[in-house]
Design a protein that fits this description.
- The complex is a heterotrimer of chains A (297), B (316) and C (313).
- With 297 residues, chain A is mainly alpha-helical.
- Chain A is built from twelve helices and no strands.
- Chain B has a domain of 195 residues: ABC transporter involved in vitamin B12 uptake, BtuC.
- Chain B is built from 13 helices and no strands.
- Chain B is globular, with a radius of gyration of 20 Å.
- In chain B, 58% of the residues are buried.
- By secondary structure, chain C is an alpha/beta fold.
- Chain C is 43% helix and 13% strand.
- A four-stranded parallel sheet of chain C has the order 2-1-3-4, with helices on both faces. In chain C, strands 5-6 form a two-stranded parallel ribbon.
- Chain C folds into two domains: 170 residues, Nitrogenase molybdenum iron protein domain (Rossmann fold); 133 residues, Nitrogenase molybdenum iron protein domain (Rossmann fold, 3-Layer(aba) Sandwich), CATH 3.40.50.
- Chain C has eleven helices and eight strands.
- At the A-C interface, helix 2, helix 5, helix 11 and helix 12 of A face helix 8 and helix 9 of C.
């Protein structure tokens, strides 16, 4: 384990540990904003909504190039569909009285349903290359390569800088969107920015570490950080640290011990940090608990 | 052999039974901001499936169904626990618990015994609507013999009692549910226990979802728990009407979806889920148009509001 | 949109009792997977109409049964399935038809002792990876089809003999091809363990990175272990599969490269799905020829290809 923690368990372990840690650091603060805006599972809906995009892109790629599995076209399809999914959630919220979680659930099921429809259509076509289509873009943490780690580093840098630059605005829409709107802030556009950050995290995360880990990295560190502090700047910083630490230790454990799948172990490490925080953190005690995140009864 | 009796009748009956079994708890889940319970359950059952395999060494639906049910109940309990302990909104608590439980399942899949076996959820638990052939009734009049219904496909025999029990439970506890849903403090004063009702609702959802997973697969369950209730939410503020409309819309979505799938030759579950999303979109547009027609009397909850709007207490 | 397929119309037709009269000949045989349907189609010739529910390129894991497929199953005189839980999505429909004696699970006709165990009553279903086992499974299927058209039995037997002779020749070719790989590097490294029967038949060591389920995930310790194995044994190539993402395998290549050993991708192997319909790789012989030849060549063995068609397609 010590070898692994010191990044000397081997080349692949080192690359995966660094890549996952950077992603954990970047996803932490993004997750905090999503949590405060009650959109914790928007990442899940966006990930599921990629499927119809992948199927359409497969058909488009087949038609354009004669080869179904063109990586850039499939990525474009997945990203476009995920963006459409996020915009649909935002539209449902803006134009109806459906709650966030209901809007997210509707987009998740409709998007995935369209994808399954598409798959059942493609299977009737006499074409090869459709096997494993749903998993083609989905990455695994243990399979991370240097190019993935570079991509994550770049995106993580942009995410952290954007969060820092727009921190005040993001704080406003996180805690009191009605006040922000009344005070003349462009709430819709700032929401778009926050959702854009999420989308970037999801697309990079889905292709490098897979669906469950990216959803977990956006939720668990943010939830844990909120147990310790109510101040947004500290919460974001703490979530970044917790995300990074879970990824680093989880990946190290997966490198040190057999039969520990890397992404799943990172999720469990984040879960352990949450469970350890629960009894000790000040804000999890009933009396002093903030009511901010409880739904109105 | 009559293809309608063999293929379409069982599929339609299963779809309707699943619609009712899911729309009943789904209508309440949507009001409580727990619409994503279906998605959470579809992930939380994985460790239950793998443990059932590791314990029995069998790839058979009996133990796996029990394992899935147990894992679903444990997960639902954990979600309730985390919500209270960490003061979280429901979807955040769901995301936290379902990713951790799914990760646990993935770790269990890498144990020696499970590694070489195809134990993914699509193979082990999730069923397909179309695959329920019913060959026993040869002609329509056969359906008049009561005994022939005992030969109906197992998903139907499982879902019908589940739907009936859920419906009965809902009718019997309607008063408590209404108060607990909208005024938990008052409910406690009155001697009701909102936590007990919470627990009963969660258990009912888990039962309905797992039974329906095995019959129609995860995607349709997630859709049926959400979309009909979302459409109903846009139509009424009265709880009883909301629940009734949820069930009606669920059935309509199932029927329209099945016929669209038959015409397009696509997967029934996927098409129904897509039709469900379409129905919500249509309902949003229709409601906007109607509100534009008579703007002042719109009442609460019509603006761009992101929170769950409580029903008006006076109208319930 | 074909309205004629709408169930409402079917219901109306049923109410009026308008049943379609079935043509007398030839019988319709529906195979679940193309690994069964393709060879059976060749052997049956004009004696029976053989169709596959899952086309050559379709992955059983992704398959979504549709109403149209159910109608084909219902209309079939005989259904040939693999069994051992491969067709999990069709399980209920097949079980219902099996009660009517219309289904033959051909992989389950082979004795348990010749199969690789998975659980207490299921075996590894990828039986077609071993042509000698698959020939025996197909033989039972051919006999059942021949029983439907007794007049054709002789012609079918002749075609079956010719086809099985070709499969035996393929088996001999594969044996020689894999044996020509140097013992040190005779190791098949893939993303997941789907080639168990192939490995056992031809004596090639199997190393899969992750478990066989779609949900399973690899661990870093396993990746590092496999990188060391590739470097120590100087294995020249690893393989990707058509139905699994190639990321894990490419990570192995990069890891071995960092340790100073060059590994390349030896080819894309067909595990559950076959090649494009109508092509040589879309046949059972072509698929196995492609797998064997790719493996033997990439690992330093001698393989010219079982059929000249391999080079042409």
């Amino acid at each position: 384990m010590l070898d692994a923690l010191l990044l000397s368990a081997g080349y692949n372990a080192a690359v995966a540990m660094i890549g996952a840690t950077l992603l954990g650091i970047a996803a932490g603060p993004v997750g905090v904003f999503m949590l405060l805006r009650r959109r914790a599972l928007l990442a899940d809906a966006a990930s599921h909504a990629t499927l119809p995009g992948v199927v359409l892109a497969f058909l488009a790629s087949l038609w354009l190039t004669g080869e179904g599995r063109s990586l850039p076209i499939l990525l474009l399809g997945a990203g476009g569909a995920a963006a459409l999914g996020v915009l649909s959630v935002q539209a449902l919220q803006a134009h109806s009285r459906l709650s966030n979680s209901t809007s997210i659930a509707v987009v998740l099921s409709a998007g995935f349903g369209l994808g399954v429809m598409g798959l059942s259509y493609v299977q009737t076509l006499p074409i090869a290359g459709q096997a494993g289509l749903d998993q083609f873009l989905v990455g695994q943490t243990a399979g991370m390569r240097l190019s993935d780690a570079y991509l994550i580093a770049g995106v993580a840098g942009v995410l952290v800088l954007t969060v820092a630059a727009f921190f005040k605005e993001l704080r406003l829409i996180s805690f009191d969107p009605d006040f922000a709107a009344a005070a003349g802030w462009p709430v819709q556009r700032l929401d778009l920015l926050a959702n854009g950050l999420l989308l970037a995290t999801v697309v990079v995360g889905l292709t490098s570490v897979g669906l469950i880990l990216i959803v977990a990295m956006l939720i668990i560190p943010a939830v844990t950080a909120r147990l310790w502090t109510q101040k947004l700047d500290r919460m974001a910083l703490l979530a970044a640290i917790l995300g990074g630490v879970s990824a680093y230790t989880g990946a190290a454990a997966s490198a040190a011990f057999h039969h520990l799948p890397t992404g799943a172990t990172i999720v469990l490490a984040a879960g352990v940090l949450f469970a350890l925080s629960l009894p000790f953190a000040p804000l999890s005690r009933p009396r002093r608990a903030p009511q901010v995140l409880e739904p109105p009864a | 052999m009559n293809p309608f009796l063999a293929i379409d009748l069982p599929a339609l009956l299963i779809a309707i039974a699943a619609s009712i079994a899911c729309a009943l708890p789904g209508s309440l889940l949507v009001l409580r901001g727990q619409a994503l319970m279906g998605d959470a359950l579809s992930h939380m059952v994985l460790p239950g499936i793998v443990v059932a395999f590791l314990a029995t060494g069998k790839i058979s639906s009996g133990p796996m169904l029990l394992g899935a049910l147990a894992a679903g109940l444990i997960g639902a309990g954990l979600i309730a626990l985390v919500r209270r302990a960490a003061k979280l909104e429901p979807s955040a608590a769901m995301g936290l618990v379902f990713t951790i439980m799914f990760a646990l399942g993935v770790v269990l899949l890498e144990t020696e015994a499970a590694r070489k076996v195809d134990l993914d959820l699509n193979h082990a638990l999730y069923g397909h609507l179309e695959a329920a052939l019913w060959l026993e009734p040869a002609i329509w009049s056969d359906l008049l013999t009561p005994a022939i219904w005992l030969t109906a496909p197992r998903p139907l025999l499982m879902l019908v009692p589940v739907a009936l029990v859920l419906g009965l439970l809902l009718v019997l506890t309607f008063k408590e549910l209404r108060i607990a849903s909208f005024d938990p403090d008052y409910a406690t004063l009155q001697g009701f226990r909102p936590r007990l009702i919470d627990f009963a609702l969660t258990a009912a959802t888990t039962l309905a979802a797992v039974a329906a997973f095995e019959a129609v697969g995860s995607i349709l369950v997630i859709a049926l728990l959400t979309c009909p209730a979302a459409v109903a939410r846009l139509c009424t503020d009265r709880l009883a009407t909301h629940i009734t409309l949820s069930v009606v819309f669920a059935t309509v979505i199932a029927l329209v979806g099945y016929n669209s799938a038959a015409a397009l030759e696509t997967s029934g579950s996927g098409t129904m889920a897509a039709v469900g999303g379409l129905a919500v979109g249509l309902a949003v547009i229709v409601r906007r148009l109607r509100l534009h027609a008579r703007p002042p009397a719109a009442g609460p909850g019509t603006g761009p509001d992101s929170a769950v709007q409580p029903l008006r207490p006076g109208s319930v | 949109m074909r309205l004629g397929r709408a169930p409402w119309l079917a219901m109306i037709l049923a109410v009026f009792g308008a049943f379609s009269a079935r043509a007398a000949v030839p019988p319709t045989v529906v195979a679940t997977i193309a690994q069964i349907g393709q060879p059976l189609g060749v052997i049956a010739g004009d004696c029976a109409r053989v169709e596959s529910l899952l086309g050559e390129g379709v992955d059983p894991h992704l398959y979504q049964p549709t109403r149209a497929d159910m109608k084909r199953l219902l209309a079939a005189d005989l259904v040939l399935a693999n069994g051992h839980n491969l067709e999990a999505g069709l399980h209920r429909a097949l079980a219902a038809l099996a009660e009517r004696g219309k289904v033959l699970y051909i992989a389950e006709t082979i004795g348990q002792e010749r199969l690789l165990p998975w659980s207490d009553h299921h075996s590894d279903p990828h039986v077609w990876m071993d042509p000698t086992l698959w020939r025996d499974a197909l033989t039972v299927g051919v006999a059942r089809v021949a029983a439907l058209v007794p007049a054709c039995a002789q012609a079918m037997t002749a075609r079956a003999m010719a086809f099985f002779a070709e499969m035996d020749a393929l088996d001999a070719y594969a044996k020689a091809a894999i044996a020509s790989i140097p013992a040190d590097t005779r190791m098949l490294v893939t993303a997941h363990d789907a080639f168990a029967y192939f490995g056992r038949r031809y004596g090639i060591e199997l190393q899969g990175v992750q478990g066989i389920s779609t949900e399973s995930e690899a661990g870093l310790a396993r990746i590092e272990e496999m990188v060391r194995l590739l470097v120590d044994r100087k294995v020249p190539a690893v393989f990707v599969e058509t139905s699994v993402s190639d990321r894990l395998v490419r990570a192995l290549i990069e890891g071995a490269g960092a340790a100073g050993h060059t590994v390349r991708i030896g080819g894309t192997l067909y595990s559950d799905a076959m090649g494009a319909p109508g092509s040589y790789r879309g046949t059972i012989i072509g698929m196995l020829d492609h797998n064997t030849t790719s493996i033997a060549r990439a690992l330093g063995g001698q393989a010219t290809g079982f059929s000249p068609q391999l080079a042409k397609d």
